[in-house]
Amino acid sequence: MVIWNQMRRFKVTIVLVVVAAVLAGYFLLRPNLSQARQGVIELTNLPDQYCPLLATVVATDSNSKSALLDANTTVDECRYITLSKLTDLGDTPQLIFIKLPGALAFRISIDSIKGRYQYAPSLGDVNGDNTIDSTDESQVANALFSIDPSQITANDLDQDKKVSVMDLSLTRINHRAGVGRPDGRTWGKI
């Protein structure tokens, strides 16, 4: 009986040491949340499957309407636009205008390319005219539950490989126009 109690204490001690080591490792090795992913615009509140590969970015300084930068850039990990990739930005306050596939263009003000910014884009712009309206809604409704690959590619807003009620609801929920380009040109389809 004495040996049995000693073995049980030993096992409990080993389990506690392992748990303590795992917890200590987790807290020591996890990234500091205040420093994680600095220098990005994080795209939030998007469907899990939505993964834009490119974004059109136009930047101006806060006093001008002329574009300091007009370029396409990659979207890292489907959610991050890395500001340091936009080499012409510098480190002064800017207005950034961004257009993603299937989403309305938006404007965000940044103070520094080293900061962290968040924005929740509005999906539903199927035809790429920077307005979510009855045209987009009709196009998705006509393709609803389609098995035609070209219809799916053109109308699958949440990128789940099917045109469903979710895609249709995005066109209904987000009815409005996006932000125009500062230079007055049209965004075009990405």
Question: Brief overview, please?
Answer:
By secondary structure, the chain is α+β, with helices and mostly antiparallel strands. Among the domains are: 1-30; 40-123, Immunoglobulin-like (Sandwich).
Verbal overview:
The protein is α+β, with helices and mostly antiparallel strands. The chain contains four helices and nine strands; from the N terminus they run H-E-E-E-E-E-E-E-E-H-H-H-E. Among the domains are: 30 residues; 84 residues, Immunoglobulin-like (Sandwich), CATH 2.60.40.
Nearest-integer average pLDDT: 85
N-to-C order of helices and strands:
HEEEEEEEEHHHE
Assign an overall shape: flat
CATH architecture assignment name of the domain at 40-123: Sandwich
What is the element layout, followed by pairings?
Elements: H1 2-29, E1 40-43, E2 54-61, E3 69-74, E4 80-82, E5 94-99, E6 106-110, E7 116-119, E8 131-132, H2 134-143, H3 149-155, H4 165-173, E9 176-177
Parallel strand pairs: 1-7
Antiparallel strand pairs: 1-4, 2-3, 2-5, 5-6, 8-9
Helix pairs in contact: 2-4
List keywords for this structure.
190 residues; alpha+beta; Immunoglobulin-like; four-stranded antiparallel beta sheet; three-stranded mixed beta sheet; 28% helix; flat
